[in-house]
Specification:
The strands form 2 sheets. A 6-stranded mixed beta sheet has the order 6-7-8-3-9-10, sandwiched between helices. Strands 2-1-4-5 form a 4-stranded antiparallel beta sheet, covered by helices on one side. α6 runs antiparallel to α7. It is about 65% helix and about 10% strand. The protein folds into 2 domains: about 325 residues, ABC transporter transmembrane region fold (Up-down Bundle), CATH 1.20.1560; about 260 residues, 3-Layer(aba) Sandwich (Rossmann fold). Bound molecules: adenosine-5'-triphosphate and magnesium ion.
């Protein structure tokens, strides 16, 4: 009920329309009353008295009644439809806006398919419960009360019989509907699961193929589909059974009314017209009664959906602006980690008491084995997550005390995985700076060694990526991401394995460009290539979430330790290089650095 009350708030801004709908509903309900009475007049007055005029009057009255009723119904349905669509609109918009604000941690543990289901299926269920359910509930209750009143006025004995049959009818529905709903809920859950599987498996079809698991995946999917089939049939069976039993009960009611009513008419206890009218009113009784029961069942169903949607809306973003967060219009780019401890799940820290300080304009290479916590360091700097203990400081400001939006503007990141959107190349490049001119986009692309490739495409920068556009190679994607970061022109630049997918020739080109790009910024470079590392001013060596060394290449390489080991292991080929090649590598590294 709490949930439902909260949901009703969504109708509040439109209370005028809700009020109007309710009024129109009463009009529609009331307009149902005269019809059986007209029938009564035809049978009791017009036929025995051979009254032609009365028949004409009734003809026009029926026509007028239904014309008005049609108009009112149309307006009513339009209004209710509008309210429903509007609530969907509000809820979806609000949910999406909220999802955008939620921190990465929220997404870490959730399947995208499930999040999507909340924005689609769940909101549809809510809309139905709120408008169809709630709005028509009022009409149905009103109709029931009015019709029952009329039945008693017309013939109380017949009305009593009906009052015995009606609960039987309703009970039958209640029992079967709850079972139908249970099946529906299960069907929905399976549907959600099926969607998740589909998204995952279709999205990663290459993996399936590489391991030749098509047959296995098909079989597994077959199981899911077969399960859905079984449930679907169960639902159909229950539905049809309900249809059949309710018809029998209804027939029992109608039959009894005709039988008992017939004897009452024979005994002159009521006119034939009144029996006919009574019969007419009976028709108005069953459907609203069932809808009221159905609404109750639906409510429980909708409740689960409402809960899920509100759960999303109630999740507070973990990364928020402190009340006294300051605006930092510009930064010099000094970065300090002071005794930082952090875990994606706070019980399992992946960074332990990490401290280091970086001067503005420095190039810092972060090296270390896989899983050492290199990406985690830069994730904290970009404030995708907040530390569990300690401080991350930029220009001496704890990042938690700086307005998120201004902080992010100073930090650019080329992440380990490049994600591009299904829009044009140009739009992708200027994603981080929407007011960039075409010239700026082109110059960024040039720096990322991307321009020639783009110009070789028929549509140039307007070429679309994705479903109805071109597909990019891993290296091209990385260069897109670099161009994007160049254009955003951040003060602190993070390159997380940003050149891993480039061939050595392209890398050399990009590296040279990056050399320029890095000037005047503080740079964090996570890389496995010697050239990049030689390029750095200082090297941060990480292992198992700790900083084990921090210094220049010359110092680190000449003393025993992790760096020396890594260097020997990864770059021993350097020793094997021809003198020419080594010369070339070093020249280029120094050139890029200068
Ligand atoms: N989103 C996440 N949720 C939970 N744990 C995570 C998450 N991302 C990383 N981890 C864990 O944190 C630890 C450090 O991961 P991190 O990504 O920082 O390593 P890395 O040094 O960047 O490794 P690589 O060189 O392979 O990219 C790992 O043990 C990893 O399992
Ligand atoms: Mg990483």
């Amino acid at each position: 009920m709490e949930n439902y009350k909260r949901l009703l708030q969504y109708l509040k801004p439109y209370r005028f329309r809700v009020g109007l709908s309710v009024a129109l509903m009463f009009a529609v309900t009331l307009s149902a009353i005269p019809m059986p009475l007209f029938q009564k007049q035809v049978i009791d007055a017009a036929i025995p008295n051979r009254d032609e005029r009365l028949l004409v009057v009734i003809f026009f009255a029926v026509l007028a009644l239904y014309a008005v009723r049609g108009l009112v119904s149309f307006t009513l349905n339009y209004l209710v439809g509008w309210l429903g669509q509007r609530v969907i609109f509000d809820l979806r918009f609000q949910s999406y806006r909220h999802l955008q604000r939620l921190s990465l941690a929220y997404y870490d543990g959730r399947q995208p398919g499930k999040i999507m289901a909340r924005l689609t299926g769940d909101i549809d269920v809510i809309q139905y419960a709120l408008t169809q359910g709630f709005v028509y509930l009022i009409t149905d209750v009103a109709t029931l009360l009015i019709v029952v009143g009329w039945l008693f006025l017309l013939q109380w004995k017949l009305a009593l019989i009906t009052m015995f049959i009606l609960p039987l009818y309703v009970l039958n529905y209640k029992l079967l509907l709850s079972r139908i709903r249970i099946v529906s809920v299960e069907l929905r859950e399976r549907w959600e699961k099926m969607m998740s599987t589909l998204t995952e498996k279709v999205g990663s079809i290459a993996v399936v193929k590489v391991f030749a698991r098509e047959g296995y995946e098909t079989d597994r999917f077959m199981e899911t589909v077969a399960g859905n089939f079984k449930l679907g049939m169960q639902q159909t069976k229950l539905n049809r059974f309900l249809g059949a039993t309710s018809q029998v009960i209804r027939a029992l009611g109608t039959g009894l009314v005709l039988w008992v009513g017939g004897t009452i008419v024979q005994d002159r206890g009521m006119t034939p017209g009144a029996l006919f009218a009574f019969y007419g009113y009976l028709g108005y009784l069953y459907d609203p009664a069932v809808r009221i029961v159905d609404f109750n069942v639906q409510l429980q169903w909708a409740n689960a959906a409402i809960e899920r949607v509100f759960e999303t809306l109630d999740t507070r973003p973990e990364i928020v602006d402190a009340p006294d967060a300051v605006h930092l219009p510009s930064v010099r780019g000094e970065v300090e980690f002071r005794n930082v401890t952090f875990g994606y799940d706070s019980d399992h820290p992946v960074l332990h008491d990490v401290s280091f300080k970086v001067n503005p304009g420095e190039i810092i290479a972060i090296v270390g084995p896989s899983g050492a916590g290199k990406s985690t360091i830069v994730n904290l700097l970009a404030r995708f997550y907040d530390v569990n203990a300690g401080h991350v400081l930029v220009d001496g400001h704890d990042v938690r005390n700086v307005r998120l939006e201004t902080m992010r503007r100073h930090i650019g990141m080329v992440a380990q995985e490049t994600i591009l959107f299904s829009v044009s190349l140009k739009e992708n490049i200027r994603y981080g700076k929407k007011d960039a001119t075409t010239d700026q986009v082109i110059s960024a692309a040039r720096s990322a060694d991307l321009h020639e490739f783009v110009m070789s495409l028929p549509d140039g920068y307007e070429t679309k990526i994705g479903e109805d556009g071109i597909k990019l190679s891993g290296g091209q994607k990385q260069r897109m991401a670099i161009a994007r970061a160049i254009l955003a022109n951040p003060r602190i630049l993070i390159l997380d394995d940003a050149t891993s997918a480039l061939d050595s020739h392209t890398e050399a080109n990009v590296q040279a460009a990056l050399g320029h790009l890095m000037e005047g910024r503080t740079n964090f470079v996570i890389a496995h290539r010697l050239s990049t590392i030689l390029n750095a001013d200082r090297i941060l060596v990480m292992s198992e979430g700790r900083i084990v060394d921090f210094g220049t290449h010359t110092v680190l390489v000449n003393r025993p330790g992790l760096y020396q080991d890594l260097y020997r292991e990864q770059f021993k080929t350097v020793e094997d290089l021809s003198d020419d090649d080594r010369e070339r590598l070093l020249t280029y590294a120094t050139a890029a650095h200068a």
